[in-house]
Amino acid sequence: MTLRSVTAVVPFVLLLFPATSLLAGSPPSATAVPGTDGYVTIPKAELRPNKSQHYRAIFNATEAAGRPTEVVPALNMAGSELNALAAENVPLSNARFVVVFHGAAIDAILDDAHYKAKYGVDNPNLSVLAAMRKAGTEIFVCGQNMLAVAMDPKAISPDVRVASDALLVLMAYQNKGYALLDF
After folding, report:
1. What is the pLDDT of residues 88-143, one digit of tens each?
2. Are 34 and 82 spatial neighbours (Cβ–Cβ below 8 Å)?
3. Structure pTM?
C-alpha cells in the first residue's frame, strides 16, 4: 500500500470508527478545573498517572489565546493536567504546579472590567485562575513585563501574585526540580 492510498483510506476509517471508539475510553472529564480541556482515560495505556507520584511543573505562559473568548494555552494545559490527575484519582496535593505569565499571555490575568474594556468580552481566564488557585497552583506575573506595558497592579486578578521577573521565577522553580512546560 502506498502513502497516497493510506492517506486516502485513513479519513474513511475515522468516519467509520471515531477515535473515542478505537480507544474505548470514557467521556472527557474536567472535574478539577472546569473551563479547560478534559481528560479521557485510556484503559490499556502503558503509562498513566500514578497515585503515589508527585508532579511538579512550571508552565511558562507566553502565548495569547487565539481569540479573546478562549483560555490562554498555558492555563488550558495546566488545567487539563490537573483534570487528568483528578480523573485518575491522584490526590491534587500531589500536584505542585506554577504558572508564570509574561509576553503575549499577560492580558489573561486582567480583571473583568479591564479585559472587557480592551476586548469587549468577559475574561474567560478568571474562573480558570480561581479554580487553579483552589487546587493549589501558584500563579505569578512578571513585574518587568507589567512595567513595560504599563499594566496597573490593581487591574489584575486577585489570584495572581506579582513577581519581580518571570525568568527568575522560571529559574527558581527549575532549580527545585520543576519540569518546564512552555505554552
Report:
1. 999 999 999 999 999 999 999 999 999 999 999 999 999 999 999 999 999 999 99
2. no
3. 0.84
Q: Which CATH number fits domain 26-43+53-182: 2.60.120.1440, 1.10.3720.10, 3.40.1260.10, 3.40.50.800?
A: 3.40.1260.10
CA nearest to 174, candidates 50, 54, 52, 60 = 60
By the 8 A CB rule, do 142 and 122 touch?
no
Q: Which residues on neighbouring strands pair with residue 164, listed in sequence order?
A: none
Give 144-164 pLDDT, tens digit per residue.
999 999 999 999 999 999 999
Chain centroid, CA 107 distance in Å: 15
Q: Where are the domains of the chain?
A: 26-43+53-182
